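Q: What residues go here?
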């Protein structure tokens, strides 16, 4: 069954000449049943405020609106997509606001009320940076209550990774510190036009009411960036530049200075961030 009365996406792309541009991370989803499924992975959208980054020709935007979203703010850098998005706005009067620009430079709260949900098939080149920003505001809870985001499968695995695994790192620590993160669905390259080289996955993150362990976001971010920046080194070496007495602070946080970042659980990284922040 069609999810709306708008034309099929292949037709939209042909009408508006939306050939995919690699530099903008354009891999489009043209199956509206799939975009409706991604919208469902975001939970109950009835009446919700939703931020979509990179709507492109609007397949996911249509899935979100058909799922009952009260307002979708769609931020798109590629001006070629605007006429196609404006046709979607006409089919859902008052429910879609399209902003042309860079998602890294736009404050959603100028257009939406909190808490909003973020749902996006992210451009691969800015996806990780956006996720880190959403996870590290100084205060918690954040202005969003859930993030439902498409990543390359390998990045999705890093977000949900556990200590001891090769994929455990900065993304796992920051995501699991303040959110519940799980992989909602995985997609083969053929789900996209053009198909990327690798598989993708949708990660669903729900903001916790409070972080699992106390720490300052900027300090924790600095600690894990250094610790995993040289993940094969012992922590006393990897973190040497952080403070002159790093060995003492590691010990005070209950971490062996000879351990490697990969072995350190979230709770211990938070203890270390508190030690590093202490005067
Ligand atoms: N949502 C569409 C879909 O699922 O078919 C398109 C997804 S495509 C992977 C990523 C989209 O993000 C493209 O439309 C691209 O132009 C847009 N984009 C790239 N960089 C952006 C940025 N910095 N801010 C906003 N949009 C961006």
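A:
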């Amino acid at each position: 069954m069609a999810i709306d009365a708008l034309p099929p996406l292949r037709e939209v792309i042909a009408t508006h000449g939306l050939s995919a541009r690699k530099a903008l991370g354009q891999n489009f989803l043209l199956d509206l049943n799939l975009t409706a499924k991604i919208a469902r992975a975001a939970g109950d959208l009835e009446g919700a405020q939703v931020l979509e980054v990179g709507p492109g020709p609007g397949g996911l935007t249509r899935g979100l609106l058909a799922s009952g979203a009260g307002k979708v703010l769609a931020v798109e850098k590629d001006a070629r997509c605007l006429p196609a998005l404006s046709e979607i706005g006409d089919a859902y009067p008052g429910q879609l606001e399209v902003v042309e620009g860079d998602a890294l430079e736009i404050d959603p709260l100028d257009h939406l009320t909190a808490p909003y949900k973020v749902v996006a098939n992210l451009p691969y080149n800015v996806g990780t940076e956006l996720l880190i920003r959403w996870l590290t505001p100084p205060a918690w809870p954040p202005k969003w209550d859930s993030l439902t985001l498409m990543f390359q499968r390998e990045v999705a695995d890093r977000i949900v990774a556990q200590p001891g695994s090769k994929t455990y790192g900065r993304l796992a620590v920051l995501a699991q510190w303040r959110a519940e993160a799980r992989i909602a669905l995985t997609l083969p390259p053929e789900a996209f036009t053009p198909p990327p080289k690798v598989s993708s996955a949708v990660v669903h993150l729900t903001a916790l009411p409070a972080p699992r362990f106390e720490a300052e976001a900027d300090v924790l971010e600095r600690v894990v960036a250094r610790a995993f920046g040289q993940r094969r080194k012992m922590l006393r070496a990897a973190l040497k530049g952080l403070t002159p007495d790093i060995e003492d602070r590691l010990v005070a946080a209950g971490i062996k200075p000879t351990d490697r970042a990969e072995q350190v659980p979230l709770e211990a990284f938070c203890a270390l961030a508190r030690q590093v922040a202490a005067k």
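A: Context that may help when evaluating the design: The beta strands are 28-29, 49-53, 71-76, 96-100, 116-121, 144-152, 179-187, 192-193, 200-207. Residues 217-229 form the longest helix (13 residues).
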